[in-house]
Design brief:
The protein has 6 helices and 4 strands. With about 250 residues, the protein is α+β, with helices and mostly antiparallel strands. Helix 1 packs across helix 2 (about 40-50).
Length: about 250
């Protein structure tokens, strides 16, 4: 497409051996600022004229690399505006619903939604940002947010695994605490049982010693009783000389 006709009053002339398409590829900007025409080179003037011929109400996109989260945008051309492509059809140029014929082939009219996309891009080494309106079908809307949805699902799985790991640690700590309490309880019970047995043994020894002492006392009492009984049966001795009998 020639943007400058042969009868154009422009004094600028294209470089030899370079097509207008090559110049547009090298000089085109997604969003142009108000540059003074006199300060622009011929290539920039050509790119600006092409930019002014675009219809910037709606953009069309290419979702070929949607899984990486990257997509390309461009403004619609005059022919696309006339046909309604990207406004009354899906704005994804790779979608079967991008053309009117693709829309007519469906028995049920597909649902389309207008989205305002925050489009950030790098142009001439500078980070730029723009809000761009795009019309997409339901399937292409999912493609547009596919990476973000995938990341959220992965974060959800990681968070669930982390929470389950924390729960397992808490349960393991609880089991160890219960085991420690049970071991301490068993130790205390053993100590109490050992002390009771010791006291019982001491009491048994005391009772045995008491019985032994009582038995010795009984034996001694019996001996003393026998001695008293023996003294009472023996003849008494009289004091003084022998008694003589009468002749």
């Amino acid at each position: 497409m020639a943007l400058y006709s042969q009868g154009s009053s422009s004094k600028a002339t294209p470089r030899a051996g370079t097509s207008e398409f090559d110049i547009l590829k090298a000089s085109h900007k997604f969003l142009r600022e108000d540059d003074k025409q006199s300060e622009l080179s011929w290539d920039e003037q050509l790119a600006k004229k092409y930019y002014q011929s675009l219809y910037r109400e709606f953009a069309v996109c290419d979702l070929k690399h949607y899984k990486s989260g990257n997509f390309s945008l461009r403004w619609r051309t005059e022919s696309e505006v006339i046909s309604g492509a990207g406004e009354t059809t899906c704005g994804n140029t790779r979608c079967p619903l991008h053309t009117e014929s693709g829309m007519r082939e469906r028995t049920v009219t597909p649902s389309l939604q207008t989205l305002e996309l925050p489009f950030s891009y790098i142009e001439e080494g500078e980070n730029k940002f723009a809000l761009v309106k795009v019309v997409l079908c339901a399937k292409c809307q999912k493609k547009l947010v596919w990476k973000r949805t995938k990341e959220r699902e992965e974060e959800k799985v990681e968070r669930k695994e982390r929470e389950e790991g924390e729960d397992e640690d808490i349960q393991r700590a609880g089991v160890l605490d219960r085991q420690g309490v049970e071991q301490r309880a068993d130790s205390i019970a053993e100590e109490l049982s050992g002390g009771t047995s010791s006291r019982v043994r001491r009491n048994d020894r005391g009772q045995e010693a008491s019985r032994h002492s009582d038995h010795k006392g009984d034996i001694e009492s019996a001996r003393q009783s026998r001695r008293r009984s023996s003294r009472s049966r023996s003849p008494r001795r009289h004091s003084g000389g022998h008694h003589r009998g009468r002749p």
